[in-house]
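Our collaborator T.R. sent over the components below with a one-line note: 'Predict the complex.' Nothing else. No constraints on interfaces, no templates requested, no preferences about which chain binds where. So this is a plain run: every listed entity goes in together, and whatever single assembly comes back becomes the starting point for the next discussion.
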Amino acid sequence: MKNHRNGYYNPKAQFRRLITVEDVYKSPVIADPLRLLHCSPVSDGAATIILADAKTAKKYTDRPVYILACAQASDTLGLYNRKDLTTMESVVSASKVAYETARLKPKDIDFVEAHDCFTIAEIMAYEDLGFCEKGRGGKMIEEGLTEIDGEIPFNPSGGLKAKGHPVGATGVAQAVEVVLQLREEAEQRQVKGAKIGMSHNIGGTGSTAVITIYGRDV
Amino acid sequence: MGGMFKVDFSPSREWREINARYRLESSMCERCGRIYYPPRDLCPVCRRKSIGAMKTITLPRRGEIVTYSVIHAAPLKGFEGRTPYIVAIVDLGGVRIQTLLTDCEPDEIKIGDEVEAVFRRIREDGERGVIHYGTIFRPVRTPKTSVHAH
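Returned assembly:
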């Protein structure tokens, strides 16, 4: 519901409509307990970014966005081989390296574009990225901490859930949203004063995770 | 689609996987004792040191449900006409495998229930293709003593 609310303000979102708890429980079951409205769609879409070193970038823009860290980690594809079904070790490892590289901590991050392929994936990301203790993810949503005006906004774009999930383009689309936010060009869904952004992208069942941290000139 | 399931598995792969699928053969790394199912040629933890140290063992045919989901929208070809069906992770003496549950309705099972292996037809490769058999699990309804074959 949060991500649909954010997507409502994103002109590029696939679903620009609000949904209610009732809508979710009226939607058909896909894989119990997940219903249709717990799942991101399969979308058509494209995204582009221009990558350059900082010096070259300055020739083309006076508002470059910097990649402060980018880390990848992997895990088994089969869930049955994992120690814990409610943790993505790939996300934990990749984010640890990303935080170390950027010399930042979760409290330094202003907002996150997360891979909410299913609603539970975003809740797991709160925990695996270190924004709350294990088991507290659900409370983050209940307390509104991840709303656009919350303590740590998640998916101001609407996320995969509302913006859409064109699988191959999703990761770059996350980077695009981070750039718009850091340039304060995100209009009605702007996270106020965003200086440091993060993207969290996963592949397979979390068998691959890429965590990127971005910053801007301040 | 016609009336039959159209699937895309290859006969050679089918043949390669038979021992694991029919008899629950898995591989144990003799260096660290970890057991892998489906079997692996190398232990991903011990890596090259596990060369020549992977031993074939057979998993117990009874275990318990670790978790499960009832699938209503089938992602796999060949399962479209079978929904709802149950996919479970089952613990067989400390080794977890992913499997289908059969001979039960979703409301008849719960996490922790004891299950036993049964040999079943899984899916078919069209009218003239391979019939895909394998080991799946069903709830143990009448408690009885059993000897696990190893």
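Summary for T.R.: The longest strand of chain B covers residues 114-124.
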